[in-house]
Write a structure and sequence with these properties.
Oligomer: single chain
Largest sheet: 9 strands, mixed
Mean pLDDT: 89
Low-confidence stretches: 1-32
Structural class: alpha+beta
Number of helices: 12
Strand content: 15-25%
Radius of gyration: 23 Å
Length: about 525
């Protein structure tokens, strides 16, 4: 087993690749948690929030801009912590599998003071969905089905019509941040400023952080009609970049930050200190296999053998740093249509015995060979995706080495891993960590359709059973298609197209601060309250 470690500046991420983008844009689907504390609130004041990575662009449709978008941008609808779709910019709406209609609230204004119109919303959605704009964040969040948008300013309605059925129109298109006309007139300004209707406005930043957001006045169209003037809502929000979780924990204990997410072992020392907490279900160790023609794992028998050889319980223990539970799905426990699908469909150890039927044998040195060529695998991981993931990859590599594979175990930065996934294609397996997309439909571009640069299917998956079940599921609105969505996931597991390692949780902590979180750990801006 070869080991090569490349050092880069740390910038942890809660999600792997563009799946993170969908989760960030669509956070709020299917659950969440609310922190609590009993001390009096502070009028005005500043709340400091720690984030693990820098924001190279504040464009809400850019690859990493969606994470901070909710502070400055609203969507047509939102999803409450209990999973129900509630009002946002739209006060009324209705949606099926082929169309949706949203009616805007009266009195919504952009941060420059101009009124938001239905035609302005339609223009924003068209811009986000136009493939010529190459907006990675928007592409990851929007339906993988073409659609058209029309508007009627007189009735304040925005209408969406799909080219083919799509189950979750309101939970995808309805949740995309709306950019005001001033931002669309010159989209370049969105990299370093905000042009939205949200409760805050970006008012200062440095390239490596911190990022300062200042509260708007007169905001009355938040989720379920929440305003921007509740007692305890901070006047300023400072987002500070703190890559190391151990440092984050120290700052939480001393009040150096008010809100931060911690997923690793530092959580143990935060217990019992009076911090507000909210738990976030996650999927740890979501692993993809490169099925590009010419790569060894394009062989499904080999993929199934490698997955079947793994000790899933042992991997889960390493992934969670304790008594772990093997993952039950590709999505987190609070996602729409979640069920225990993995256990009964992932290959078992017996899959190893099928290797000789496709020409894999062991040479005198115990190596797996086919047509005289030894099996060599390049296995990528990154501590930037989660502190335990390099150890998970190491255990996988040791198992595959014992099976006869020559494993090049590589630990890289987040950016280097994503470059291998989406550009060079130089990997055979990659281990990541994700809160899991909130909708099963959000997985489709990663397991179906074209590869980069025309699509998101970086692993070159081609699974006809998955595609058939997805086609059926998309015809049913909302959760009516859950049985077909889970049959689709089962098809991926049977073919060993992906392996989620463990069901886990992260924790968002608050120091003298309360808040609500959506799936993926995103803070709901209008829920933040500063306490004494």
């Amino acid at each position: 087993m070869h080991r090569r470690t490349v050092s880069f500046p740390r910038a942890r991420s809660a999600a792997v690749a563009s799946a993170a983008l969908a989760s960030a844009v669509l956070a709020g689907c299917g659950g969440g948690d609310v922190s609590s504390t009993r001390t009096p609130v502070v009028v005005g004041g500043t709340v400091t929030i720690a984030t693990a990575s820098e924001t190279p662009s504040f464009h809400p449709y850019a690859q990493f801009g969606s994470a901070l978008a909710p502070y400055a941008y609203d969507s047509l609808v939102t999803v409450a912590p209990d999973g129900r779709v509630v009002s946002g910019l739209a006060g009324k709406w209705r949606a099926g599998a082929t169309s949706a209609r949203f009616t805007l609230r009266k009195g919504v204004t952009c941060s420059d003071g101009t009124a938001l119109t239905a035609s302005g919303v339609a223009r924003s959605l068209r811009y986000a969905s136009d493939p010529r704009n190459r907006l990675v964040g928007a592409r990851a969040a929007l339906p993988g089905v073409p659609f058209t948008v029309s508007a009627d300013d007189a009735t304040r309605t925005v209408s969406v019509r799909m080219a083919s059925p799509y189950s979750f129109i309101e939970r995808t298109i309805g949740l995309v941040p709306v950019v005001c006309p001033a931002g669309l007139a010159d989209p370049a300004v969105l990299d370093r400023s905000t042009r939205g209707t949200g409760p805050y406005v970006l008012s200062g930043y440095t390239s490596g952080g911190p990022y300062l957001f200042t509260r708007r006045k007169g905001y009355t169209w938040g989720p379920r009609g929440t305003t921007n003037s509740a007692a305890g809502q901070p006047e300023r929000i400072v987002v500070s970049v703190v890559p190391q979780e151990s440092t984050v924990a120290n700052l939480l204990l001393t009040g150096g930050v008010n809100i931060a997410s911690v997923t690793g072992p530092d959580r143990a020392r935060l217990t019992g200190h009076g911090l507000a907490t909210a738990r976030v279900p996650t999927v740890v160790g979501l692993t993809f296999f490169n099925e590009r023609p010419g790569r060894p794992l394009s062989d499904p028998v080999l993929r199934r053998a490698l997955v079947g050889a793994l000790d899933r319980k042992g991997l889960a223990n390493v992934a969670t740093g304790g008594d772990g539970t093997p993952a039950s799905h590709l999505t987190a426990a609070d996602s729409v249509c979640h069920a225990d699908v993995a256990g009964g469909n992932l290959p078992a150890h017996g899959a190893v015995t099928a290797l000789d039927t496709t020409g894999w044998t062991k040479d005198a040195r115990g190596r797996l060979v086919k047509h005289g060529r030894p099996l060599r695998l390049r296995l990528l991981s990154s501590a930037d995706f989660g502190s335990t993931l390099p150890a998970v990859a190491e255990l996988m590599a040791a198992t595959w080495q014992a099976l006869g594979a020559d494993v090049d175990l590589v630990s890289e930065s987040r950016n280097a891993v994503m470059q291998a996934m989406y550009q060079s294609g130089d990997f055979d397996a990659v281990v990541g960590s994700s809160p899991g997309p909130p909708l099963p439909a959000q997985l489709v571009p990663y397991f179906s359709g074209p590869p980069p640069s025309r699509g998101l299917n970086f692993a070159h998956v081609a699974n006809r059973a998955y595609d058939r079940s997805v086609a059926l599921a998309l015809r049913a609105p909302g959760t009516a298609g859950c049985a077909d969505w889970n049959r689709a996931a089962a098809a991926l597991f049977r073919s060993a197209d992906a392996l989620p390692v463990a069901d886990g949780t992260g924790t968002v902590y608050g120091y003298r601060t309360t808040f609500a979180v959506a799936p993926g750990g995103r803070i709901v801006p209008t829920s933040i309250r500063l306490h004494r």
